[in-house]
Amino acid sequence: MSGHSKWAKIKRQKGITDQKRGAIFTKLGRNITMAAKEGGPDPESNFSLRLAIDKAKAVNMPSDNIDRAIKKASGQDGKMNMQKITYEAIGHNNVVMIIDCQTDNTNRTVSEVKSILEKNGAKLATVGSLSWQFNEIGFIQLKPAKLEKAQKYGAEDKYLPIDKEQLEMDLMEIEGITDIEENILEDEAGNSSQVLDISTDKNSFSKIVKELNQRQLQIISYELIKKANDLIEIPDDYQGKIANIVDSLEDLDDVDSVWLNIK
To answer: Is residue 243 classed as helix, strand or coil in its secondary structure?
Structure first.
């Protein structure tokens, strides 16, 4: 729920229904359009667009959909009137929610968000009253593996395991990396593997992703996240309620991400 596994969650949804896949494509298409609108249509020079495209490709979004989303930003493929808006909310036990949206109708969006919150005992807060509790940082999941080029014609390049402890030491020397934690990641088949969760400062994020790629390390996912400065614990009987609120919000077409301050 902290948001760290948001892209991993998207990647695990390859087997979902067509209706659910269509909803995900809608959200990812909006991400691409907004990124292209803000930074231009070239993913080589627009890191946010490259990140949005990579997320779309992770769930096999067709190339035609991606191209249309990029063209939409310049008005080449339909009217572009999307905007970003963030809502802040608070629930029981001082649970704070930051709700990032992309919408073409703010009246509709705030009405839908407010309805879900109120049905579950939470409420909207004044803009700016809670967001100060969060910082935007870069988050990268990395396997301790390095790309090995094939030595003979017809063979495939593949990632081979490398020493995890040495890798951690090497990574901590990179300027802008603020924290490294060991974690276990499960894929859609239920197989688990060891990964490193890397936190970076926001301004160094794109540079660090580029450097890790240049070192041919195996990046599983990377994204900008909003991380709470202080995480709180909540009672077991309230965890299901929070999960229901988050799932209901994320089912809305206009809601892109939900960030929480719970452990």
So the answer is: helix
What is the predicted pLDDT for the residue at 5? 44
Q: Is 175 helix (H, G, I), strand (E, B) or coil?
A: coil
Q: What is the DSSP letter of 155?
A: P
Taking only the tens place, the pLDDT of each residue in 194-212 is 999 999 999 999 999 999 9
Helix (H, G, I), strand (E, B) or coil at 183: strand
Q: Is the pLDDT of residue 167 over 70?
A: yes
Helices in the chain by DSSP H: which ranges?
6-11, 18-39, 47-58, 63-73, 106-119, 164-171, 205-214, 236-250
Dist. CA 33–CA 41, nearest whole Å = 9
Domain boundaries, the chain: 6-73, 83-133+228-260, 135-226
Selected from 1.10.1040.10, 3.30.70.980, 3.40.50.740, 1.10.760.10, the CATH number assigned to the domain covering 83-133+228-260 reads 3.30.70.980
Number of residues assigned to the chain: 263
Tokens 């970076």 map to which residue? 200
Across the chain, what does the average pLDDT equal? 89
